[in-house]
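Colleagues,

For the teaching module next term, I've prepared a clean inverse folding example: a structure given as tokens, and then the sequence designed for it. I'd like students to try predicting residues themselves before seeing the answer, so please don't circulate the second half yet.
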């Protein structure tokens, strides 16, 4: 009988502790942190799915530049030779926008190679933010090492050293390795204590810098896309003017121009959505950090901002993913 009572007592104690643990895990601050982490994770997955979009756009612009000059029957600047695609990428310069508002000549091959490297740096930063989200999710169950994030920062630093031809976009990308390394230190220092508010508070300045840097990178990408849209319009107008007026060629031209413009517009729409998502994540991160500094984080009014923004972000990302899948599952 005593044995039965002892077993029952242990069961009751276990059930009580389980209920208490369940309640603790559902505290307002922990719930807000978990929702925020889910929103970050979902967003980073989608952003990483668009890796290399900037370099793809650069190559698309190079082709449009070639077409524009070819339609104009332009010659290479240093000779009387016609423009040929095989040599075009290394022969013709592009006016690359710089961080100070000026422009600098780079040939298309150099520029697109540098942009590809910048894309890789931004991808490392996104993986680091995903690791931050994972840390918040795991905060009450297991230890976490910042070593993986530090490795990302080291890789990003190496890539930054490979950028030798500057542009506004590449300059932004080169600012990301430092806060990525600082984030690794913040996670490693505070995670062992299992204090989520301290993790958020310490990581906040560097997470904010990374979110801001990725947002600025997307803004630079949008600027390039708008330039590409203007360039495409010039190419299509030039082609339209010389188009023979028979119905079949007009239909073919209409089909081609529609696909080109729709593809570019889809890229711009996706980037604008992601830019808005990053701003909401920045606001949620700031609110979560502010709430964590208060005497009673669970009662902080800022948690409403965290929960609201996280909910909107998750909805926006889900809608964006459906839109991308609706276009054949590709953003290329």
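(Answer key — instructors only)
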């Amino acid at each position: 009988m005593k044995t039965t009572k002892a077993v029952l007592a242990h069961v009751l104690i276990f059930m009580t502790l389980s209920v208490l643990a369940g309640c603790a895990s559902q505290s307002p601050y922990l719930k807000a942190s978990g929702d925020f982490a889910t929103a970050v994770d979902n967003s980073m997955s989608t952003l990483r799915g668009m890796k290399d979009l900037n370099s793809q756009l650069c190559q698309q612009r190079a082709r449009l530049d070639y077409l524009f000059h070819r339609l104009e029957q332009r010659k290479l600047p240093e000779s009387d030779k016609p423009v040929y695609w095989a040599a075009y990428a290394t022969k013709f310069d592009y006016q690359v926008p710089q961080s100070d508002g000026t422009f600098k000549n780079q040939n298309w091959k150099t520029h697109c190679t540098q942009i590809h490297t910048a894309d890789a740096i931004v991808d490392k930063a996104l993986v680091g933010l995903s690791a931050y989200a994972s840390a918040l999710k795991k905060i009450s169950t297991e230890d976490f090492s910042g070593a993986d994030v530090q490795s990302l920062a080291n890789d990003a630093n190496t890539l930054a050293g490979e950028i030798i031809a500057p542009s506004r976009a590449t300059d932004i990308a080169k600012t990301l390795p430092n806060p990525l390394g600082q984030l690794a230190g913040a996670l490693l220092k505070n995670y062992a204590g299992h204090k989520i508010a301290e993790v958020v508070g310490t990581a906040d300045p560097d997470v904010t810098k990374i979110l801001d840097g990725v947002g600025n990178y997307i803004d630079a990408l949008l600027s390039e896309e708008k330039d590409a849209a203007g360039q495409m319009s010039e190419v299509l107008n030039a082609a339209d003017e010389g188009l023979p007026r028979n119905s079949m060629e007009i239909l073919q031209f209409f089909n081609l121009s529609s696909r080109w413009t729709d593809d570019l517009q889809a890229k711009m729409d996706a980037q604008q959505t992601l830019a808005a998502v990053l701003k909401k994540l920045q606001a949620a991160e700031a609110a979560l950090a502010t709430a964590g500094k208060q005497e009673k984080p669970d009662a902080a009014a800022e948690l409403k901002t965290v929960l609201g923004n996280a909910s909107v972000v998750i909805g926006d990302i889900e809608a964006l993913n459906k839109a991308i899948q609706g276009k054949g599952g590709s953003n290329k």
